[in-house]
Amino acid sequence: MEGRPSTGVPILRLGDVLVTGMLNEIDDKAALAFTDELTERIAAESTRGVLIDVSRLEIIDSFVARTLMELTTMARLLGARVIVAGMRPPVAITLVELGIELVGVETALDAERGMTALGWRQVPQPPEGARHDATR
């Protein structure tokens, strides 16, 4: 990915899952660069799943919706499952009003539920005092 401009959107790796998000400030050029970077990472890192958190998106247009659908299709072709998590009600309403269907895009109410759908389980941590008692 040398020579490519950075999108400024962090892509974190948790085991075989990539976690990232979309921000309101993303323009068409940055969205395309983000798609390129994410698909390169999926292929290079043998990624099994991708969580895209859209909870910070206050609006969505047809270009961003199409980008999400294309990204999902590309990821599936590369062997990864994509879940879009955290869509706000106004964004969902806007998509319906515009007649935009996110065909093939799997969604989750929030990032935690999306990670669970990708096979992640939250392991409860023992209470602080319990760790000290066990070492005595």
TrEMBL record:
InterPro entries: Bact_StressResp_Reg, STAS_dom, STAS_dom_sf
PROSITE patterns linked: STAS
Coiled coil: none
Top-rank taxon: Bacteria
SUPFAM superfamilies, alphabetized: SpoIIaa-like
Annotated Pfam families: STAS
Segments forming domain STAS: 7-100
Name under which the protein is recorded: STAS domain-containing protein
